[in-house]
Amino acid sequence: MSRIRVYGPLLGTAVLVLVSAAWLIIGLGHVWAHPALGWLPVVATGVLAGSACRAAARQAGLDAATRRFWRHMAWACAPLVAGIVANAVDATGGPVPSQQIGPVTLACYLAVLGIVLWALLRLPSWQRSRSDWIRFGIDGCVVLLTVGTLLWHFSMREHREWVDQTGSAGPMLVVSVVAGLSMATFVKVAFAGAGRLDRGAIYALATGSAISAGFGGLSPFLTPWPYLSTSIVSVPMAALSIHLAAVSQQRAAGRPPRPHRSRRRISVVPFLAVAVADMLLLATSTRDPGETRAMEAVAVALTGLVIVRQIIALRDNQSLLATVDAQLGELHRYQDRLTHQATHDSLTDAGNRALFEQEARRLLGDGRSFRVALLDLDDFKAVNDRHGHHLGDRLITTTSARLAATVGGHGTVVRLGGDEFALVLPAGDGVEALLDRVVAAVEHPADLDGTVVSPGVSLGVTDSRPGDEPAELLRRADVAMYAAKAAGGRRWQWFDPGMDRAGAEAARLADDLRGALPGGQLFVLFQPIVALPDGRPAGAEALLRWQHPTRGLVPPDQFIPIAERTGTITDIGAWVFTQACRQIAEWQRRYGAAAPDRLSVNVSARQLADPRFVDTVIRVLDETGADPARLLVEVTETAVLNTETAAGHLARLKALGLRVALDDFGTGHSSLSLLLNCPVDVLKVDKSFVSGAAADNAGAVIVKNLIGFTNDFRIDAVAEGVETAEQAERLYDVGYRLAQGYHFGRPMTAAAFERTFTAQAATAGA
C-alpha cells in the first residue's frame, strides 16, 4: 500500500509529462482549437510535485535541516503552480495566442528558483566562509554570462521576429540563466555533500533544472506556432524532477546517507566557460562590429572572473598548506612529547624502565660491554612516614638531580619506581670511583623546605654478559643491592655468583618455613631476665626456635629475616604470642603471686603494619585468660619508624594494660625522639654496648649515660648481652637493676625456667 502511495503519483506525473510532450509534438502539425487545454496537465504536475515534497517533509526520522529543505521545496511548488497558470493566461488569454511571458509569470518562476536556491544554501554542509561566498559568486557570474551568451547566440539572436512578436527575450533570458545558476548550485552541493539529504535527490533536481532550462531555450524556434509554448514541456520536466527527488528521499528513509567520498576535484566549469566564449568569439561574423565587441567583452569578463577565482584558490591553498604545515609541526611536537612521556618519569624527568630496556637492548645488540647499577635509598619509608609524601617526593627529585649531575655524560640515569634508580654505565676503568662519587653525592645532607635529611643509599652493580636480557641485569643488580643493605647499607656491592646460590638457598628455606608452623617444627624457649645484683629471675623473654627436619636447628638470624620478607612472620608472630599468653596464664594458675612478673614477646614490623594486630591480641587474651599487666610487647626502633600504624597500635595495647619495650635501643637513627613519641615502658640497651668490641670504651660511656635518660623518663632499663660477672657488676654500679644474657642463663624450656625461678624463690624464702 505504501509503495502504491509513493509510486502511484510519480507514475501519474510521468504520464502527464508524456501527454504534454505529445501535445507539443502534435501541435507542430495540427492547430489546436482550444490551446488552453494543453496547460491543464502542466498545472497537475506542479500540484503533484508539491504534494510529494510535503510527504517527504513529514517523513519520520528526518533531521531538522533535511525536513526544512523539503518544506521549502513544497513552498516552492505554490509559486510554480501560480506561474503555470499565469503563463497559460499569457499564452491563451489574449485576442490571439502568444508566447509572451508577462511580469506575473516571470515573478512566479523567479520566486520558485529563489526559494530553491535559499533552501540549498541553508543546508548544513554548505560552507559559508568568506572565500566560499566569493567563489560561489564568481561561479554564479560565470554561469550567468555563459548561459546568457549561449542562449543569445544560438536562440534569440537569429530569431528577431520572435523577439519582436513576443517581447519575451528579457524574461526568457533571465529565467534561463537563473535556472542554470540553480543547476550549478545543485551540482556544487551534491559534490560537497548535504548532511542527511539524499544525494540522489540532489542529482535529480540538478538534472531536471538542466533539462527544463534546455527546453525553455527552444522557445524562439516555435515562432511559426504562436499557440505553442516550450513551457508546456520544460515546466512539467522541472516538476517531474522535483517529484523524483522527493520519492528518492522517501526511499532513503531509515537508511544512513551514503558516505561522501572526499576526493580532490578541480573545477573545470570556469575554464570550460572561457573556452566556450573564445569559440563563440571566433565563430562570430566580423560583419557585425557591435556583436563582435559584445563577444569580446564577454570573453574578457569570463577570463577576468576565472583569473580572480584562481587567485583566490591559490591564496586559500597557500593558507591551507600553511595550516597543514603548522598542524604537522604540532603533530611532530606532540609525538615527541608522547615519546618523551613514554620513556621518562613524570616526577623527576629521568628515564623510566622503558628507556632502561631500550638502552640496555641497544648496547646488548651492539655487543658492547657495560655495567648496570641498581640503587635504593635506605629507610626512605621512614622519611615518608615522618615528614610526609611531599617531602619524600622532594627527596626523590633531589636524588635524581644529584645522580644526573654525578653521572653526567658517562651513563644513563633512570628511575624504576619509588626510591629505586638504575644506572647504565660504560665498561672501563673508573667505574668504582664513579660509584664512590654517587654514594657521596646522594648521602650529602639535603635541605628540603627547611628540613635537613641525610639519606643513605645502597647500590648493587653487575657486568653485562653475552645473551643477557634487561630483566636479568636488573635481577643481578638487585641481588647485589640487597647484599649491600645486609652489610649495613651506605655502600655499593659487586654482584657475585655466590649471591645467587645464597638467594636460592634462602628461597628454599622460605618454602620450608611456610610449612614449619603447620608441621609443628616451631617451638618457644624462655631466656631469664634477672634483677641485679643477686640475679634472681624477674621475668623472661619468649624466643622462637625452628627445628628443621633435615637441617636441624636453624638459627633465628637466618629464618626471622626470611619470615619478615615473605610475610609469614604475621602468622608465626601470632602463634608465638598465643604460646606466651598460655604460658603466663599457666604460671599464674600454678604459682599465683609468685609467678614471673613479666614475659616479653617480640613483635615484628609486619605485625605492627597489620590492621588486625590489636584485634588478634584481644582475642588471644580472652581465650587464654592471661594477665595483660604481666606481658611486654618488644618492638624495634626500625619497626616503629617504618610502620605508619605502629604508634596507634602501641597506644591501644597500652590501653589494654600491656607494657611496651623498645628493643635493641641505640642501633637506630632516631632513638631519642622515640622516647618522646613512643609509649615506652622498658628500654632494652643493645648488647653491642654491653659486651661488644666497644663495650670498654665508647660503649661504656653510652651505657652510663643511657641510664640517666631512663631514670629521667621513669623507664625501666634492661641491659642485654651480659656475658660475665664483671659486666654485671659494672652495670649495677652505674645504676642498672635489670639484665639479660648468657651469664644468667641461656634460652631454655618452660620447665627448665620454672625450676630456675622456683629454686630462686625457695632460696629467697630461706
Explain what you see.
- Residues 506-761 form the EAL domain.
- Residues 368-497 form the GGDEF domain.
- By secondary structure, this protein is an alpha/beta fold.
- The protein folds into three domains: 2-254; 353-495, Reverse transcriptase/Diguanylate cyclase domain (Alpha-Beta Plaits); 530-536 and 572-745, TIM Barrel, CATH 3.20.20.
- The chain has 28 helices and 16 strands.
- The strands form three sheets. It has an eight-stranded mixed beta barrel, surrounded by four helices.
- Strand 9 (536-548) and strand 10 (552-554) form a beta hairpin.
- The chain is elongated and about 155 Å long.
- The N and C termini lie far apart (124 Å).
- 39% of the residues are buried.
Topology (elements, then pairings):
Elements lengths: L1 H26 L12 H18 L6 H29 L10 H19 L8 H27 L3 H7 L2 H24 L6 H18 L14 H21 L17 H15 L5 H55 L9 H13 L4 E9 L1 H8 L1 H19 L4 E6 L2 E7 L4 H13 L2 E3 L2 E3 L2 E8 L6 H17 L4 E4 L2 H18 L7 E10 L4 E13 L3 E3 L1 H11 L2 H23 L7 E4 L2 H5 L3 H12 L6 E6 H5 L4 H11 L2 E7 L5 H7 L4 E4 L1 H4 L7 H15 L3 E4 L5 H10 L3 E2 L10 H16 L1
Parallel strand pairs: 6-7, 9-11, 11-12, 12-13, 13-14, 14-15, 15-16
Antiparallel strand pairs: 1-3, 1-6, 2-3, 4-5, 8-9, 8-16, 9-10
